Amino acid sequence: MTTLSEDQARQLLAAAAGDRFEALYVLALATGMRQGELLALKWRDVDLDTGSLQVRTTLQRSDHGLVFAPPKTAFSRRRVALSKKAREALRLHYANQVVERKQVGPAWEDLDLVFPNAIGAPIDGTNFSRQSFAALLAKASLPPMRFHDLRHTAATLLLGRGINPKIVSEMLGHARIAITLELYSHVTPHMQQQAADAMDAALGGYR
Questions:
Q1: In whole angstroms, what separates CA 61 from the centre of its chain?
Q2: In whole angstroms, how far apart are CA 49 and each of 26, 167, 201, 206?
Q3: What's the predicted TM-score (pTM) here?
Q4: What is the domain-level CATH number for residue 77?
Q5: Contact status, residue 157 vs residue 184, Cβ threshold 8 Å
Q6: Domain-located, residue 35
Q7: For residue 132, what are the domain limits?
Q8: For residues 23 and 91, what is the distance between their CA atoms, to the nearest angstrom?
Q9: If 93 and its partner were Cys, which of 23, 46, 65, 116 is the partner (CB 3.0–4.6 Å)?
Q10: Is 189 within a domain?
Q11: Is residue 166 part of a domain?
Q12: Hey, which residues are catalytic here?
């Protein structure tokens, strides 16, 4: 598992500013969604007014090419709250996509995808990682990593900030909180120190 620090995550997003997929990177870091979930996301499942989205589908490669399939588990079907930055990025992305659709015209494949390719069709996640994501990492002067590591980064940053592990678990779509705690056990010592410091603040001054 490779994760980015807070500074490195900001570095990545700064490098992604103006990129066609800037909102994809923002969403990956802000929500911890899996790549397949992001690439299958449809506008009908995004509510920018309430600031949330619904994960209902994932994009997978099969013997017949790219297919939309149910999420990994029942727990993967979930509602995810959106940060202010994520909402702003999605609004800008939508506006840019409207322009793209007009330029492409009848050739646009209207699948309602939030993150399609240049003509509206699904994106191959493997090719995307090898090309666009790898190029972005190089531009940001960051070491090579998997796109999936953005999911790990999101979880690590949230847990490191003291967010309740149950909330992080639900956000990631894990079946059990134990999975979250086991995967990100490297953050636990920091969380325990935060708890100890909080207890000092609560009990301090009794003498």
A1: 20
A2: 18, 22, 38, 47
A3: 0.91
A4: 1.10.443.10
A5: no
A6: yes
A7: 6-147
A8: 9
A9: 23
A10: no
A11: no
A12: 34, 72, 151, 174, 184
